[in-house]
Amino acid sequence: MAFDHDNSVQDFAVSKQEYLKLRPDMSFRHIATSVLVVSQSFGGEPRILLLQRATSDSHPNKWEPPGGACDDEDPSILHGAARELREETGLKVSRFDAVVGEPYHFEVRSGRRVARFHFAIRIRVDSGALPVVRLDPAEHQHFVWASEAEIVARKSGGIGLEFTNDYLTDVLVLTLRNCVQLPVALT
């Protein structure tokens, strides 16, 4: 996986083990990521990619950006985020631009404490084309490109958007307002 990153995300260009070792006082010991993909290919209005979780998965039918857990095998947290994006959508990260908002802290059923970091990214697409999203049906069943107004209304094109957590609305709106990432055209 080849990608570039802004200096503002340099802290995440290390393995999760190294990141946690440098921060022994953190209340979490596990790291997850969300990858925030924005496109302005829809008539100029920025829209963000959201995925609907599969009915057979945890948080069934709820919406979220692509992402997931960083694995021990991931060379860096950024690599883990890029891997999750590719596995869940078929899209490839070109550049990590920024961390958006504060990390979201949660606890899983096993009692593990997790921090989810949200990364604004750029993706690789064919020149002049919309990004082609290929879902993994074991994890997600639908996708939408939602505008800020649709996120706030929690409805996109007649589809209800119930998010996996309430904090996501703030992160998604903040990302769209800043539009820190746009698809990168390859020629």
From TrEMBL:
Span of domain Nudix hydrolase: 28-168
SUPFAM superfamilies listed in its UniProt record: Nudix
Pfam families: NUDIX
UniProt-listed PROSITE patterns: NUDIX
UniProt protein name: Nudix hydrolase domain-containing protein
InterPro entries xrefs: NUDIX_hydrolase-like_dom_sf (IPR015797), NUDIX_hydrolase_dom (IPR000086)
Lineage summary: Eukaryota, Fungi, Dikarya, Ascomycota, Pezizomycotina
